[in-house]
Task: inverse folding
DNA sequence: AGCGGAACCTAAAACGTTTTAGATTCGCCC
DNA sequence: GGGCGAATCTAAAACGTTTTAGGTTCCGCT
């Protein structure tokens, strides 16, 4: 591999000049720069990022650590869209993106640091839920941290979160506005903010209408298709079953859809189903899901931008950025619902 | 940040010894090693990967370049599972994983090299379809390359591919074995191997039964839910419509499902639908999809392992590794079909 | 006591870049 | 032609690590 010294030698200048020239920095004559550039392309010179990082004392790279509340960052329908936003923002700023290993029993913070330690990376994005102790340990290793889709109350760790409470309220209100009076909740039985915020939002909506919350109508369950299907069956087994159900995840809504189907009932006639997230498949279920569109890519983008700013010494305010979702009305609740535009722009490119 | 010199100084040894000790290399007394280790943990020393990379002349890192036949690596239902396998293999070998920017009009090979150039990365994995010229240009920059889910005929570029021809044949044969005689194909209208291999497999199956291939029954279309739905409608509009259809992607099968629904018909009674890929959602459609399980994670894993081997100077044979999928029988073709085990192992971890 | 060799340790160079401080050249004006 | 300042260039140090070649210490043996 040619180095900058090779380029410099062939161009008849010093490495310092070559460096300046190739980065179009002032202080080098246009003629010289052209010369250096020509030699560089001739040699197919590619600057060695590692050398540059060492010299500059910064990596211009961000690490991503995946939380515990997902199977794998790549296989999670929700988080991969967050990651997509991260990638966009990171690359737009000419930063690199490095992915830390998936968390598993046996990997500790020090193991993580072998991949995304200081020097390798200017900071890390923690996507989803991570044990607060771990986050502290990461901070202690001298890394800048931003957390996405979770936050650590009582700490100063910057975060980008979604307003799940307001979102759940919005969805529930939609159902109430449609005339439903017995609305069930298939919630998440997890010990982090998402779990209780969605419940609170659901209750907020009921309270705003002066309705009591029937405890029999709220089922907390594991996040997953099967668990949600079971919970929905439970709801439908009730002597006085709900006419609508809010599910805190679209994959869980798919479970609810299945449960209704298994009983030979119909959505939305017999049970209206609303989800949250708006993942790709949500537009293609039968019937298409009415749901809350959580700005997943936007969250990732914002988090990455904040982390990069932080690593440059700026301090974005507020410390916690909260985004809100929008209601997407499709068919699963019976409301009219024109077909909403799909999320994001498709980047379709031809081949050859 | 403490450096190895700090550790060495406090431990009263030279940096060289500290380096040896921390990596548990021979030539240092157990007592000394313990001492150095203690100082290191005391100082929360984390070795600087950048320094190490420069010194060793290798990055112990792999880059991933995403092909043109996907919106974004992260948002593609199929490829993100490939990526998952890549991550697993890479991290199991203590390599780092860096993701190159998504391809868009305007980014060239040189732009890519700013993120995954030689020195930053020991090699790159090209996931999916990339213009052969680009691959050549990457090779010219001195990078080791392995291609996954595509291959470059006429070149020496190592690849890991799936036997789409055999897979399509398997699926079609399943339908034929079920007694269907008019089987349609909703194929991919793309100019890379996947497109024609699936068609060939479909024809192979027909030919093996001595059946003619009715050209009216094969529809080549864009890869996507809507296009597939339209193609299915086209098939059903035929005076002599098929009783079964093979769709070369599960997302396309979902489009077919929708088309059938839109006509008030039923799957599988009025039209049997079979897909290919087996992505997460395929088990949760109505009815659940009979499909070909392409070993996506395995492909990623294998490709990563080959790339790492290559970067260490080994040359795995054969140059092109071909994996085969397995038929997953669910309900969408009417066959009995016990519920097959889900793919992969769930890595469920508690919180705090 | 002297020798040989193993075991342990270290100095210094090397990796490829950027940056800093200083040197040289050039053009211009008096 | 001399002097000045700006423009252009360069030498050398620095970043944090590993490796190589060599140095020292220590032990056991004769």
Result:
């Amino acid at each position: 591999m040619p180095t900058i010294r090779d380029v410099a030698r062939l161009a008849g200048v010093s490495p310092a000049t070559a460096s300046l020239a190739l980065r179009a920095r002032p202080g080098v004559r246009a003629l010289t720069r052209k010369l250096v550039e020509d030699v560089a392309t001739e040699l197919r010179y590619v600057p060695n990022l590692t050398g540059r990082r060492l010299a500059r004392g910064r990596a211009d790279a961000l690490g991503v650590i995946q939380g515990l509340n997902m199977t794998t960052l790549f296989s999670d329908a929700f988080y991969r869209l967050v990651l997509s936003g991260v990638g966009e923002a990171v690359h737009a700023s000419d930063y690199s993106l490095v992915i830390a290993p998936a968390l598993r029993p046996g990997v500790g913070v020090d193991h993580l640091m072998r991949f995304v330690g200081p020097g390798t990376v200017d900071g890390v994005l923690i996507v989803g839920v991570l044990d607060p102790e771990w986050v502290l340990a990461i901070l202690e290793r001298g890394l800048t941290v931003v957390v996405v889709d979770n936050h650590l109350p009582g700490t100063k760790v910057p975060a980008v979160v979604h307003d799940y409470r307001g979102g759940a309220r919005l969805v529930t209100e939609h159902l109430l506005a449609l005339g439903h009076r017995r609305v069930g909740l298939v919630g998440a039985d997890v010990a982090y903010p998402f779990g209780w915020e969605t419940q609170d939002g659901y209750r907020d909506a009921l309270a705003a209408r002066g309705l009591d919350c029937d405890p029999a109508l709220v089922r907390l369950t594991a996040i997953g298709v099967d668990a949600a299907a079971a919970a929905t069956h439970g709801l439908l087994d009730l002597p006085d079953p709900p006419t609508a159900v809010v599910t805190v995840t679209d994959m869980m809504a798919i479970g609810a859809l299945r449960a209704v189907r298994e009983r030979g009932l119909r959505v939305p006639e017999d049970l209206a189903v609303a989800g949250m997230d708006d993942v790709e498949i949500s537009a293609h279920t039968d019937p298409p899901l009415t749901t809350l569109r959580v700005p997943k890519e936007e969250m990732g983008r914002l988090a990455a931008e904040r982390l990069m700013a932080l690593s440059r010494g700026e301090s974005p305010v507020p410390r916690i950025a909260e985004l809100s979702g929008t209601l997407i009305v499709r068919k699963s609740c019976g409301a009219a619902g024109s077909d909403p535009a799909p999320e994001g722009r498709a980047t379709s490119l031809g081949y050859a």
Residues 3-5, 15-16, 19-20, 23, 47-57 of chain B lie near DNA strand D (CB under 10 Å from a C1').
